[in-house]
Design a protein that fits this description.
Number of helices: 2
Shape: globular
Largest sheet: 5 strands, mixed
Structural class: mainly beta
CATH topology: Immunoglobulin-like
Strand order of the largest sheet: 2-8-7-4-5
CATH class: Mainly Beta
């Protein structure tokens, strides 16, 4: 069963006030789940980027770009996936998160 996970919820969101990586590290996020990003489009957007671009806060070559809130992103594969805000300065202010997508348990 897939879950919809609102990034940063329940006490925050896709913004610089939320400890986004701490939020992600506290979750078991599985293949098939959906991440829901809620944000103010004038302040943020959501870019899926490479690992290198994540750590450099580089927004020029996104894998995917989303500008409409809420943004729902399905997670179809295992492994690490990286997201940043592409708005100027926002990634460096902490509006970024990497997600470790896990295999669902066998039932």
């Amino acid at each position: 069963m897939a879950w919809n996970l609102t990034v940063g919820a329940p006490n925050g969101g896709w913004n610089s006030k939320t400890q986004l990586q701490a939020w992600a590290n506290s979750k078991f996020i599985l293949v098939g789940d959906n991440l829901i990003f809620v944000y103010e489009p004038s302040e943020d957007n959501v870019l899926q980027v490479s690992k290198e671009d994540f750590y450099a806060c580089e927004s020029k070559n996104p894998i995917q770009a989303h500008n409409k809130s809420p943004t729902a992103i399905n997670l179809p594969t295992l492994g690490l996936i990286y997201f940043i805000s592409g708005k100027p300065g926002r990634c460096n202010q902490g509006v970024k998160v990497w997600i470790n997508v896990l295999k669902p348990p066998l039932l």
